[in-house]
Amino acid sequence: MESIKSDWWMENGLHEFTESGHGKNGINDYDRAMISRAEASFNHAAYRLSNHHGDYDRIDAVLALKRAVDARLEHLNSIYDFSQYPESKNFGRLGLLENWGVILQRTLRRLRRLRNAVEHDGAEPPTLDECEDYREVCWWFLKGTIDYLSPLDSYDFSWNESSGSFSIDYSPLAVTLFGDFTPELLSDSQIDGWIKLNTLENPAPRQPDSIQMLPIERAGRGRYLVRAEVADQDSRLEFLKFSMDYFGMTTRRFD
């Protein structure tokens, strides 16, 4: 029987969560192949810049660095499906990652424009020093995004006197929440900035003809049982950003 749903709101306190366990997506053959492709392109560029300094060597290095970035972006897209976010049409993949706090895109975008200029417009290649700067930015981009290739798929938390867990899928983005919450963290009416939940029917046995909708007060404990789907895209994005922040990646920015 399909679960009955009702709308509730939860305080947006994800930054206050304390971890008590987590699970991560595994690496499969496709992931390994895409990681290898990005690294091979980067290593080719590094070889050209270290051993050959002519114009064509520098052009070849720029093209290879662009291929390395594109391979990683394609790989990330296979996990997160950037097209599901309307803003990706205006921001592009790099812009969306910047909006999520993963990177700063300015130099990476410059590298993409430079590749088009030297390959299609006959522009002069950058100097060796400039190429080395692009190589460094690309190296940090590949290094800094590696953890995002194996993102969180579950997270157990404590939150003051509350506790629970959530699971997250990324394509499409979906979050399921289960927890034992103190009442001040929940509301049956909308509050600005709070996370909207579609709470589900009580999974525990109940009396015939009774409707035990969650959240349910746990008598004598001063807390409520919650089992819910995170209802809207903005609220789900809070969990996506939290899962990225979990690895401390927002402190590594790429300009």
Structure write-up:
By secondary structure, this protein is an alpha+beta fold. The protein contains six helices and nine strands, in the order E-E-H-H-H-H-H-E-E-E-E-E-E-E-H. It has helices at 29-51, 55-80, 88-99, 106-120, 128-144, 233-245; strands spanning 5-10, 18-24, 152-159, 162-170, 173-181, 186-187, 195-200, 216-218, 223-230. Strands 1, 2, 3, 4, 5, 6, 7, 8 and 9 form a nine-stranded antiparallel β-sheet that branches. Strand 8 (216-218) and strand 9 (223-230) form a beta hairpin. Helix 1 (29-51) packs antiparallel against helix 2. The radius of gyration is 23 Å and the shape is elongated. The N and C termini lie far apart (51 Å).
Question: What are the salient characteristics of this protein?
Answer:
single chain, about 260 residues, alpha+beta, 9-stranded antiparallel β-sheet, elongated, disordered C terminus
**Which structural class fits the helix and strand makeup?**
alpha+beta
Total strands: 9
Shape: elongated
Distance between the termini: 51 Å
Compressed to H and E, one letter per element, the order equals EEHHHHHEEEEEEEH
Low-confidence stretches: 203-213, 249-255
Major sheet size, sense and barrel closure: 9 strands, antiparallel
Count of separate DSSP helical elements: 6
Tell me what portion of residues adopts beta-strand conformation. 15-25%
Report helical residue fraction: 40-55%
Multimer state: single chain
